């Protein structure tokens, strides 16, 4: 992403040319829609939330103080909106306890097992309390970059690290009945 | 479950592409937004006299009520209770013709309402 392009488009918008905002939308539509999708797991809703984030960014452009990169500011604004939106209307995911535990994890087919495991882990992430879930989602969205995740969440890095650690602890505890010792032992070997 | 396993699973995220009409849809909303008149801020300057009157009146009433309660407490320190304090306040209100105070509060309220009404009318014209 070109920082100078963002800067130039923002200057044009602030000078009274709203159509210049299209450049910003084209450059950031993918990341913003994907970030929203990670929050809600619903394609239609993700696009609605991303559209609202762009609109809010358009309205708030005069307030961007250029202390950070445009992308950092945009992600922080979008994250804030997505978190509030999801707290207002949670994503349609059931509790982790609703998923039946496999009778014998060793009996499952390898591919099915992996797919099932991914699904379970993502489900468990959604069942986390919001502050841990948000930290985890942002951490993985930003390719495991704590400072980027902290910037998007508007929190100190230490707080994000603590939330990640606590979130992982909860996940481990929740997932232990689903991933028996044999599965972990086989993977460790 | 180890952190590395968790990292591997959660990093393997399915990417979605925005629909083809997404940019157009956002820009349409942006154009509407840009064409809309800016929101009218709350008329604080017009409302200030009314708000100040409310605050002053409430403060005077509170101080007077506290003074009466303290006076009552000094006279009979063991007998101060909430109903008693309320009675003292009401008596004070009667003695000081609190009706005027209520009238002042009502006028303040009306002035605030009128200022918001005028602001709304200004937006339509």
Give the helices and strands, then pairings.
The complex is a heterodimer of chains A (189) and B (125).
Chain A: H1 3-14, H2 21-40, H3 43-60, H4 70-88, H5 110-126, H6 130-141, H7 146-153, H8 157-175, H9 181-188
Helix pairs in contact in A: 1-2, 2-3, 2-4, 3-4, 4-7, 5-8, 6-7, 6-8, 7-8
Chain B: H1 3-11, H2 22-35, H3 44-75, H4 82-95, H5 98-124
Helix pairs in contact in B: 3-4, 3-5
Order of helices and strands of chain B: HHHHH
Succession of helices and strands of chain A = HHHHHHHHH
Strand % of chain A is under 5%
Residues in β-strands, percent of chain B: under 5%
What form of chain A results from the Cα inertia axes?
A: elongated
Shape of chain B: elongated
CATH class of the largest domain in chain A, named: Mainly Alpha
Tally of helical runs of chain B:
5
- Protein chain pair with the most extensive contact, residues per chain: A-B, 39 and 26 residues
CATH architecture assignment of the largest domain in chain A: Orthogonal Bundle
What is this entry, summarized?
Chain A is about 70% helix and about 0% strand. Chain A is mainly alpha-helical and about 190 residues long.
Top keywords for this entry?
heterodimer; A: 189 residues; mainly alpha; Rna Polymerase Sigma Factor, Chain: A; 2 domains; disordered C terminus; B: 125 residues; 77% helix
Description:
The complex is a heterodimer of chains A (189) and B (125). Chain A has helices at residues 3-14, 21-40, 43-60, 70-88, 110-126, 130-141, 146-153, 157-175, 181-188. Chain A has 9 helices and no strands. The N and C termini of chain A lie far apart (41 Å). Chain A folds into 2 domains: 3-88, Rna Polymerase Sigma Factor, Chain: A (Orthogonal Bundle), CATH 1.10.1740; 96-188, Winged helix-like DNA-binding domain superfamily/Winged helix DNA-binding domain (Arc Repressor Mutant, subunit A, Orthogonal Bundle). Chain A is an all-alpha fold and 189 residues long. Chain B is mostly helical and 125 residues long. Chain B has one domain (3-124). Chain B contains 5 helices and no strands. Chain B has helices spanning 3-11, 22-35, 44-75, 82-95, 98-124. The interface between A and B is medium-sized, with 39 and 26 residues.
């Amino acid at each position: 992403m070109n920082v100078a392009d963002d800067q130039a488009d923002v200057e044009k918008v602030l000078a009274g040319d709203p159509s210049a905002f299209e450049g910003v939308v084209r450059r950031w539509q993918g990341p913003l829609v994907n970030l929203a999708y990670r929050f809600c797991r619903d394609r239609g809703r993700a696009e609605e939330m991303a559209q609202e984030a762009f609109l809010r960014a358009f309205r708030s452009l005069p307030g961007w103080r250029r202390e950070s990169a445009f992308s950092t500011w945009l992600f922080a604004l979008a994250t804030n909106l997505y978190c509030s939106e999801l707290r207002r209307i949670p994503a349609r995911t059931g509790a982790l306890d609703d998923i039946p535990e496999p009778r014998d994890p060793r009996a499952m087919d390898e591919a099915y097992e992996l797919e099932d495991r991914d699904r379970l882990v993502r489900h468990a992430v959604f069942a986390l309390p919001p502050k841990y879930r948000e930290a985890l989602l942002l951490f993985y969205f930003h390719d495991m970059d704590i400072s980027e995740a902290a910037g998007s969440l508007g929190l100190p890095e230490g707080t994000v690290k603590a939330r990640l650690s606590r979130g992982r602890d909860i996940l481990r505890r929740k997932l232990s009945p689903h991933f028996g010792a044999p599965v972990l032992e086989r993977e460790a070997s | 479950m180890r952190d590395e396993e968790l990292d591997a699973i959660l990093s393997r995220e399915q990417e979605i592409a925005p629909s083809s009409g997404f940019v157009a849809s956002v820009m349409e909303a942006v154009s509407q937004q840009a064409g809309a008149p800016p929101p009218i801020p709350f008329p604080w300057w017009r409302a200030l006299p009314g708000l100040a009157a409310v605050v002053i009146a409430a403060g005077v009433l509170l101080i007077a009520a506290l003074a009466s309660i303290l006076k009552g407490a000094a006279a009979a320190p063991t007998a101060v209770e909430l109903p008693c304090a309320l009675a003292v306040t009401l008596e004070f209100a009667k003695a000081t013709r609190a009706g005027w105070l209520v009238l002042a509060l009502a006028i303040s309220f009306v002035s605030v309402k009128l200022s918001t009404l005028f602001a709304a009318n200004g937006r339509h014209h």
